[in-house]
TrEMBL record:
Family, per entry: Belongs to the isocitrate and isopropylmalate dehydrogenases family.
Gene3D superfamilies: Isopropylmalate Dehydrogenase (3.40.718.10)
Protein name stated in the entry: Homoisocitrate dehydrogenase
GO molecular function per UniProt: homoisocitrate dehydrogenase activity; isocitrate dehydrogenase (NAD+) activity; magnesium ion binding; NAD binding
Organism: Lunasporangiospora selenospora
Residue ranges crossing the lipid bilayer per the database entry: none
GO-annotated biological processes: isocitrate metabolic process; lysine biosynthetic process; tricarboxylic acid cycle
Amino acid sequence: KKLTIGLIPADGIGREVIPAARQVLESLPKSDSSPQFEYIHLDAGFEYFQKHGVALPEETLVRLREECQGALFGAVSSPSHKVAGYSSPIVALRKHLDLYANVRPVASVSGTTQKPLDMLIIRENTECLERIETDANGLRVAWADRKISEFASRRAGTMAFNMALMRDKLRRSTSAPSLWQGPPKVTIVHKSNVLSVTDGLWRETVRAVKESNPDLYGSVTMEEQLVDSMVYRMFREPEAFDVVVAPNLYGDIISDGAAALVGSLGLVPSANVGDNFVVGEPVHGSAPDIAGQQKANPIAAIRSAGLLLEHMGYASEAARIYEAVDGVLREGQICTPDLGGSSTTQEVTDAICKRL
Ligand code: NAI
Ligand code: MG
């Protein structure tokens, strides 16, 4: 089957790690059942905005919708001050394609981290945004609209419970030892002791996903964790988590913390998932401090290509990519400076391709 993948490197190290992910996809062994890839290069990002006045060109959106079955996004450099006319293209993309859940697996490769962990963070992907308006005196009023809707919370919650069941099924079907031994578990992150209206609705809605579907989700344990103690507990006993589901901003923060536990932001992938489209995207940003120097760890982007395949229904191709990556990490010889090595982006990519 032919699969057309949109490649959107965007800014900074996105331009180094997205070509690496493509090289890995092209190195997958060919079989009758494996897909045949075609790629379309698409523009977006802050640098593109500086040249053309738009961060997400219409053509990128149209070609994604009409020609692609999935996409890989690198990273954008978003300025920390407000730039007139600029807004983040990845936020816009998530919105336009209704990619309502950001799925972020964070797992350690045995023997490479101090504490083992194997968790899947589901980050609600469409809410908690902001707006600005001008008051009667022409002065600016900034609102952090902490919108939490029953609709979005239910979709994110449903994704979390489904993923918990899927992971459980996968663990049962493989002989490899798994870190998580108990029944599948979903941890709901919130701060409804303080934000009782917004986070209260989030908590109640996600809980109701399980409570109103006892036949489907009865086997899944449900627990809650306030976001601050979530950070504390995650650093002390990361092995205590299976699937974690959080509102947009909390999910963002927790995932960078989890990345520290596995050794680098350069290792953690994500998939922006909707009902009709998937965009793979490393969790890290454009890393201007190392961009253009072949120092970027390509593994987050390569694993994101795996996640993209997984969510498009090609689980065995995805598993091959994960195994090749884990193999290189376990060997520990070839790694980029973020993991204490001195290999280049290209050398790590080549090592993974060789294993494939
Ligand atoms: P960052 O994730 O770009 O970098 C944080 C630190 O981790 C840096 O020291 C960087 O060198 C390191 N790092 C990140 N990815 C790495 C990789 N693959 N290999 C090795 N080291 C890696 O976050 P930062 O510095 O806060 O933001 C930089 C820019 O990226 C900002 O403009 C920010 O807005 C943007 N950003 C974009 C995101 C996206 O596109 N989804 C997400 C996060 C930040
Ligand atoms: Mg982030």
